[in-house]
């Protein structure tokens, strides 16, 4: 009894001390400095919502490792060095793994089901665990069969495309829409087909008149617009959410967008359910999940969220949105990286020449590169890494959220703040990457040694930050790296790609990667604007091999019960 009292008193004293010490520290600390804003709206009007990174880089250079901006009532802490971002988002990931979800985009447009904006809670853990079962380091190797076959189709498509993108006039849509006959569309077909097969066991087999591909990119474009901070005042001022429908136009607009999205995500999901009911076996995440769920006695599970039992199962809408999240997260990001690689290699002919020489020496002309060649192609891998460092597709990452009050470097970070790992500022930091605007694959290259990807969430083993941090680290990184390697090594191996030449100056016509507005589209994902390139097989031998690989793949599709390519 006496001993219990002593322990209790000890705990009480310790609690009081911790309370006072923390309170004292908090009182000593202040929020990070940042640009002065205006009353009520804070810094809202100083940040272009669809191209925030140049302004954030400027502020990073002015304020150092961390600065604060305020949008309405919301605190945003921006971390600008690898050390600051690693410390908070990776080492303290227990606190920093939530998301500051935009109200309209998440609660209304996504009906609270989009994985990328789920808070750090049990629901997210159930979803993340299920996805890990197909995208984790070991299960993602099974996806390589499809990546290998689809990459043969893409190389064939590029070879046949020749100078179509140079000779025809192509106009990009106002929201980054890509014309179907432009070479960007061939890359989009590849990345979308691979994630469509992953989610629903189907391919994108047509190049032209392909409504699903258009709709997926329209949904991605729309979502990235409506989720930008400040897009809706109701995101910034929560009090507005109490207004009745007649005074809250964003609500009906958001509901309409939800219905419009569900015409795609709901239809794909229903088709899977119908096939299952008819006993048609399909591969793909959704079908496999529905089968396992039925075996657990939960065949019908309409509605949102996850079940409360252990281990927890996704209801139908959460499942449809999880499949959608993979389609969204995996299509444009990977396509943008491929398109950026071509641009940067054409702008750095020395790097391209060296990649070709390496591939010719290791692979020769009797076969295409495979993943077994990866270790022997360190320059090629370094070029891919440097592409992601020089122009990371999700250029400002996805914001995390501080789920508790915290102190960092003498600064107070209040609970509820959005915390952004400023990937762009980190990649442009000359202390970490000397001469940061130059394309220098040698940063990642050691002669005679394989270049490891080494881009996992471990903060001690990072090459670049394009895949984010900590517990929210991109789940598709293994799949993305495998796609990038197989498509790009085959492209360099088999195809001569060149920019057209200006008849007057004789110089190649290529956008300048340093010209922010001239070269890059607006939006959450940084994609080059369309630019013309001509493609042709490097030799007759390469051409024959590419043709044969394409023809062989058609019989593979038949054996697998998948649609053949329509050209
Ligand atoms: C080059 C390609 C890609 C890039 C640059 C990329 C980048 C990112 C980034 C920056 C995040 C947020 C990380 C954070 O919060 O710190 C993310 C999240 C995510 N990515 Fe990727 N990604 C790529 C490809 C893919 C692919 C192919 C898939 C799957 C098919 C995928 C699935 C996901 C998922 C599911 C999340 C959400 C994780 C969560 O919120 O818990 N990504 N990605």
Automatic annotation (TrEMBL):
Q: Which GO terms describe its molecular function?
A: heme binding; iron ion binding; monooxygenase activity; oxidoreductase activity, acting on paired donors, with incorporation or reduction of molecular oxygen
Question: Which chain regions cross the lipid bilayer?
Answer: 6-24
Q: Which UniProt keywords apply?
A: Heme, Iron, Membrane, Metal-binding, Monooxygenase, Oxidoreductase, Transmembrane, Transmembrane helix
Gene3D superfamilies assigned to the protein according to its UniProt record, in alphabetical order = Cytochrome P450
What's the superkingdom here?
A: Eukaryota
Q: Name the PANTHER family on file.
A: CYTOCHROME P450 MONOOXYGENASE ALNH-RELATED (PTHR46300:SF2), P450, PUTATIVE (EUROFUNG)-RELATED-RELATED (PTHR46300)
The protein in question is named: Cytochrome P450
Organism encoding this protein:
Wolfiporia cocos (strain MD-104)
Lineage of the native species? Eukaryota, Fungi, Dikarya, Basidiomycota, Agaricomycotina
